[in-house]
């Protein structure tokens, strides 16, 4: 502070405020005597300003604030990689793998369900093809015959009054005038 080269210091008012800030403690602290033991709470790492009321209490270490570049790096995400990053990456990879396994299990389950539905449809078609028509009413016989033709691939439009469902399920009133 005495290196002014004969000029007066113009910012004395600013220095009074800044000298109690943590960033300036280490630069302008009182010299440490060599007679103090290293293990004392007032070591070189925790400087004081000659009994100032704003200084931290004894035994409490003073943390220096982060510099401008370090704060910018933290804000932009370019901070140093922490020790947890490899563990987080491993956990993320495990979660991705579990998701893939679940998707493959779901695909297999869906495929099995699709096959079961196809099997049920095929079984119903075989039942219709093997049905004994003599047990049914004439109207139901026509419906079963139409379904058998559809199953076998025949597309005959023999009659428009044949319903898509059995006769017992559909009631169509008939009026003659």
Largest sheet: none
Beta-strand percentage? Answer: under 5%
Mean pLDDT: 74
Spatial separation of the terminal alpha carbons: 122 Å
Q: Which structural class fits the helix and strand makeup?
A: mainly alpha
Number of strands: 0
Please provide the ordered H/E string of secondary-structure elements: HHHHH
Radius of gyration: 46 Å
Pfam families: NAM-associated
Region (Disordered): 35-86, 151-177
Protein name: No apical meristem-associated C-terminal domain-containing protein
Biased composition (Basic and acidic residues): 61-70
Concise structural overview:
The chain is mainly α and 177 residues long. It is built from five helices and no strands. Helix content is 46%, strand content 0%.
Search tags:
46% helix, 177 residues, mainly alpha
Overview of the molecule:
With 177 residues, the chain is an all-alpha fold. The chain folds into three domains: 67 residues, no CATH class; 34 residues; 36 residues, no CATH class. The chain contains five helices and no strands. The longest helix has 46 residues. It is rod-shaped, with a radius of gyration of 46 Å. About 5% of the residues have low confidence.
